[in-house]
Amino acid sequence: MNILKMTTGVALVSLFAAAALAHGGATGIVKERMDGMSAMKDSMKVLTPMMQGKTPYNAQTVRSEAKKIGLHAGESMTKLFPEGTDGKPSEAKPEIWQDWGSFAELARQLETYSEGLVLAADNGLMASGSGKDSGMMGNATMMGAGSMTGADMMGGGPDQAQLSEMPADGVFMMLSQTCSACHTRFRSE
Q1: Which domains, and CATH codes, for the chain?
Q2: How deeply is 112 buried, as exposed, middle or buried, from its count of CB atoms within 10 A (0-12, 13-18, 19+)?
Q3: Measured torsion, CA atoms of residues 128, 133, 135, 139, in degrees rounded to the nearest 10
Q4: pLDDT at residue 174 in the model
Q5: 135-159 burial, b for 16+ CB within 10 Å, e for fewer?
Q6: Which tops the pLDDT comparison, 170 or 13?
Q7: Cis (ω within 30 of 0) for the bond into 56?
Q8: Could you say which DSSP state residue 137 is in?
């Protein structure tokens, strides 16, 4: 569970820091994408303490917040990054357009994991033992196929059926790792 807390913490610090400085002077499509990132940040603020066992787990809230994240992921995200929209006040690095395939893949993964979290919401948390079959896939699933160690970037991540059987906190960890990986590679601090 310490890895989940660390990964989630890094992702949230990045999100919060970005939100504090982000919108100054943004207009048009840059403001639109910043607003989308803020919406995802707000959902992460609701989900993180729940996944850490700091607030009561509520499957309906998990589904609702995961759907909100999904609305801003995948093609909904990539269409907000037309070439030439870097530079201040945007925090987008030029690497987005230099390595569009990797950026688009991370956006797709975010969509996949948000949809997977919707499906896994009723499974509860592995760490608390509250989920259905909470020990079912063990730590190998949380750290294996879905981790940002390379399997997902190569298209080897879990599919929707596999995600639907995982504990919600395992899917959430993959979602937050995807956020963190994208921010590390493609967002200026």
Answers
A1: 2-186 (1.20.120.10)
A2: buried
A3: -90
A4: 97
A5: eebeeebbbebbbbeeebeeeebbe
A6: 170
A7: no
A8: S
